[in-house]
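Sample A.
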Amino acid sequence: MAAEPRKKPIISTGTAAQNRRARYDYKIGETYEAGLVLHGPEVKSLRLGRASIAEAWAGERDGEMWLFGCHIPEYQAGSFMAKFDPVRPKKLLLHGKEIRTLTGAVTREGATLVPLEIRFNEKGRAKVILGLAAGKKMHDKRADIAKRDWQRDKARLMRNKGGE
């Protein structure tokens, strides 16, 4: 009997896409959770964990918040009805007060809205975690790397000392 080929795991809850570079490039302040307006095939592709938010950013357009630069590839198992633009702007669902707060922070303080991750909640709805971020200078990035290296070395020393 022939073994069935392995399928990619389908994500029902948990992280679908992560922007790990954002925490290196930006100082993340407050975070906000926003709903995401998606078409059917986009949700299926997202559940397969194929999205990329490395180049994505959020901004205001006509009084609404939108996610730009998020790449969700076409769902391969779909028909011709499953064709969509992979990088189309996606509408974010936020309360009006949150939209005004975020828009004010971006215009006044020069902050950036960076998507940190896309995940599915317990109800199976796609949510994007937005971080209100300020850019880091090169010396800040070097300091973070040195701090992370010291923490790793300290953990290694403690582990080796504890084993003796």
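Sample B.
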Amino acid sequence: MDTYAETMDFSNSYEWLNYLMDEYGEKLTNLAYGYCKDWGKAEEIVQDVFITCFHQYKSRHKIKSYKAWIYRITINRAKDFLRSAWFKRVIVQNELFAHLTSNTSTPERNLVSNETSKQLAKAVMQLPLKYREMIMLFYYEELSIQEISELINMNENTVKTRLNRGREKLKTLLERGDYYERL
């Protein structure tokens, strides 16, 4: 179980839900966006995830790691969306990764790296899902290969292979600039 959450005594489902929303809300939205490429749909997916969490309050003591559990639910909901008939009929593209580039420490540094970050984010979004998923979980969510393996129920060597192939494809996209033409 998450260390902080272990020490917390949530007296009701609302306190527990507030903790989960504060701790994981933004990260889950970014994760869902990585799959569906639509901020509105990503927010809907995360809202659905939190409804599921609310209903699982009584089972919360069985959860070994809130982070792994809630990420797994989010990934499954996002993949369900990608399999849905609505997604197959409608393709929506919004400004890519607009909220993910906010990790810089100073305004000057932000201005210098802003264009590079946008280019990188656009290129990541053009990767096939199986590579994009690995890149996002490893770099943006900062999960280890072992954590990714457990989270998506995949062999660690497969995760490493997809991560390496994703990096190679990303490098090729960035060198050629193909991501602009596909947007």
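B remarks: The chain has a mean pLDDT of 78. The two ends are 41 Å apart (CA to CA).
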